[in-house]
């Protein structure tokens, strides 16, 4: 007899237990499905508008408790406020002093002024909106400011970074090539204009793709709304990588290279421009020697025009005529 069909065998008992287990699992699954269906029907019967099946007021209170800042968020907020006030006052004073004092309006201070203006915009436009956005996890400022604020944030950061790069290049040129360096106010203004133009151009996508995306549909509350982009994640990644290259990698390499060359020039034994300076010094010495020779001949010419004051005889006429020449030669020797 087959052991699997023999009621007295152990194999028969194992097969029976396995069949019982499968049957019990199937009944549990059916019961769970029935319970879920009953729960869905209950939500439908109760007209639930959220996953917790609570009233809108209670649901709003739950959201508010979730986004309300914790105690450590208030500490960060106070630190940000100190940085905000000090940064605004400091950069404003730099701009005020450079613009009001005439002798402070040098080429170097023009770049410092532009850097202070960019930093002022960074603190004013970036710090507070970003702090509120990160703390409350909500964009409070509406559709128009969603585009404008993020656009100006990119512009201000770009201005600061590109100005630092321009200052690094100007310093390298002035220190390592001092005799060739010829920085003018017109050139500085042109560089600053190019910095602002490039910053406005590379930030244009922020004006196009940003919009406010609410969390809840229909919109129960403005909380948890986000300033989002409508283009694909791949397009956003390409744009962010481009910004990373233009505003971080390239300026970092440029400033690292220029300041490394400046350090080499300052620590080397050869003074920048020393060779050209030696050539110019030799030329100046030659010119001074020529000028001294000319000044030595002038008294002799005056003596020749005046003529000798002693009487001349016919026998000594040749020596009398050559007498001024001998006097001039002696002066030149001396």
Features:
disordered N terminus, two-stranded antiparallel ribbon, 10 helices, Rhopdopsin 7-helix transmembrane proteins, 2 strands, 2% strand, mainly alpha, disordered C terminus, 334 residues, 2 domains
Characterization of this structure:
Belongs to the G-protein coupled receptor 1 family. It is found in: Membrane. It holds the Pfam family 7tm_1. This is Orexin receptor type 2-like. With 334 residues, this protein is mostly helical. It folds into two domains: 38 residues; 204 residues, Up-down Bundle (Rhopdopsin 7-helix transmembrane proteins). 76% of the residues lie in helices and 2% in strands. The protein has a two-stranded antiparallel ribbon. Helix 4 runs antiparallel to helix 5, helix 5 packs parallel to helix 8 and helix 9 runs antiparallel to helix 10. The radius of gyration is 44 Å and the shape is elongated. It starts with 9 loop residues before the first helix and ends with a helix. 12% of the residues are buried. The N terminus and C terminus are likely disordered.
